What we know:
Helices cover 40% and strands 17% of the residues. The chain has a 7-stranded mixed sheet, with helices on both faces. It has a two-stranded antiparallel sheet with strand order 1-2. Bound molecules: zinc ion.
Amino acid sequence: MTIQDWFEKRKEAQLERRKIEARVDEDTSPSLWTKCVHCGTQILISDLEENDNVCPVCDYHFRVNAQTRIKQLFDENTFEELFVGIKPTDPLEFTDTELYVNRLSAAQEKTSLNDAVITGVGEIEGHKLATAIMDFDFMGGSMGSAVGEKVTKLIEHAIEEKLPVMVVTSSGGARMQESALSLMQMAKTSCAVSKLDDAGLLYICLLTEPTFGGVTASFGTLGDIIIAEQGARIGFAGRRVIEQTIHQSLPSDFQTAEYLLKNGQVDIVSKRKDLRKNLANILSLHKL
Length: 288
Ligand SMILES: [Zn+2]
């Protein structure tokens, strides 16, 4: 980008911000507005939703839940949910500051989901694919037995039906309340991906903000093609933990989608508005 381009872009952004600020004065009803966590601009929630939950001023990509993601990515009314009946259990009868079963019920009530992933089959610009979409609002998108089981069942279903698979990740990692049972999901899902590979079927990973821990270390980064959404943070351990371990400070863009692209860990960094088009291109190129 030249200085002139940069200047024009900034001017446009300022103008847009002034327009938005003017509208704030007209209507100050708090429930209609939200604040961009990146640039601080007040945005009408309806404007934000219309813009795919991307800030119209600074292009910050807000985190979206699994249902919204389905709406944004799939052709209308084509997504059919599968394995709805798989629900989390509490085999260890775990409790920390609260009972695990209580945490589960609270998350279920908050998200209307049984667990942190929705699995199903849908179409993107007419291309059919099996998909698992994680939801960070459900206990930080953590992977317990039910999440691992649903992802595995979905991949097995795709092998039977000869469908490509896409996982949309958003996760803090394995679910500590299920201890080793959560960690086992890493091996289980990885084995399923390996079988998908043996069957010669396409596997796409779409990494969204944030993707960390056991999900990054298993089915999240085994894709034939790995796409990261613009601005997403992706890693295994968190930045602070790494800095304390190696006693070095890390680059400011460390663990961002853009940093990972520069270093060969992901293949594409995509803006949200381009995702459908990019996915449709990839699916059409790999059509059986
Ligand atoms: Zn912003």
